[in-house]
Amino acid sequence: MPDKHAVLSASSSHRWLQCPPSALLCAKVGDVTSEFAIQGTDAHSLCEYKLKTVLGQKPADPTENLTYFNEEMADCADMYVQYVMEQLAAVQKTCKDPLVLVEQRLDFSRWVPHGFGTGDCVIVADGVLSVIDMKFGVGILVEAERNPQLMCYALGALDLFDGIYDIEQVSMTIFQPRRENISTDTISKKELLSWADNTLKPTAQLAAKGEGEFKAGEHCRFCKVKAICRKRAEYNLELARYDFTMPSTLEDEEIEAILSKADMLVSWASDVKEYALQQAVSGKEWHDWKIVEGRSNRRYVNEHAVAETVEKAGFDPYEHKVLGITAMTKLLGKTKFEDMLSGFIEKPQGKPTLVPMSDKRPAIHTAANDFKEDN
């Protein structure tokens, strides 16, 4: 798979479209490889291999070179391949010769300076162009609705094949198996091209020159300079400057104003603190802050020797308990886990959580609401 990234990449478009100047700032900061990034790369390599194999190609098996390969990853790859083949079968009912592209470099530089990305799977057919993106991550739920990354991929595919196939609609799908999330959005070719000409292109031109206005928001999550960004600091310090003295108690509207920013405020404060710590570890001396040794817990230097010693004394040194669901799934693999243990699994009601009305989860009934309905 290609590992070169564009400054104005499709994967970061959700950020630079909102905050154009962030593109060049982030480009100056080196990439830091994380465990999650390596897991994602491994999963994509496995998906590419399995899909190309099913399509009749003969790619090299990457399994032995994957750092984080396990049964869960294999199951996710199989589910991804099954989904793609189902979509292909549906397309073949109306188009005899659809084209399937796997890990295809897609160039959308017609709208974005030096813009390109890699599409996990693109199915090109008369009528509909389908873009399918595999997300192995489990932490953040990703939605396909007007997803700029998928829209950029679709533009790259359109630029290649619109004259060959009679494309009218674009279907964009996020396949996120570890979150049991398959999210699909459909947009007309006309609407997509209008967005590209009127929103994407002018914003990309600003971003390429480091121009435009800084803007803070949810898109800051993966920004490389989020800890030291002044605009983000100003955005979050608005809450810290909130007038809590008049009136002596907060009105409902004021509570809701604070709730709307609380999560981002906590995240920002955590990012600043981590940045300051890493700077200090690297040798920076802050005026009013210093590094000290944090709390630590005792641990065995040799667990095998400990167990052997305790056993000789006539005691059992081991804990005996059933593996948790996540660990058991990794042990058995997702498919075997479902076949063997689905009848023994229950999902208790989750702890009440306050979220914005835009959240897609249905509201739960509280005891107070039930009382009102009964009366």
Task: Provide structural commentary.
The chain is α+β, with helices and mostly antiparallel strands and 375 residues long. The chain has three domains: 13-208, Lambda Exonuclease, Chain A; 226-281, no CATH class; 305-344, no CATH class. Helices cover 43% and strands 12% of the residues. The protein contains twelve helices and five strands. It has helices at 13-16, 22-27, 35-54, 71-91, 148-161, 189-208, 230-240, 252-281, 303-312, 325-332, 334-341, 367-374; strands at 99-107, 116-124, 127-134, 167-176, 181-188. A five-stranded mixed sheet has the order 1-2-3-4-5. β1 and β2 form a beta hairpin.
| Strand percentage | 5-15%
Structural class: alpha+beta
What value does the Rg take, in angstroms?
Answer: 25 Å
Percent helix among the residues? 40-55%
CATH topology-level name of the largest domain: Lambda Exonuclease, Chain A
Would you tell me the overall average pLDDT?
89
Shape: globular
Taking the sheet with the most strands, its summary is: 5 strands, mixed
**Whole-number total of structural domains:** 3
Q: Which descriptors apply to this entry?
A:
alpha+beta, 12% strand, 3 domains, five-stranded mixed sheet, globular, 5 strands, Lambda Exonuclease, Chain A, 375 residues
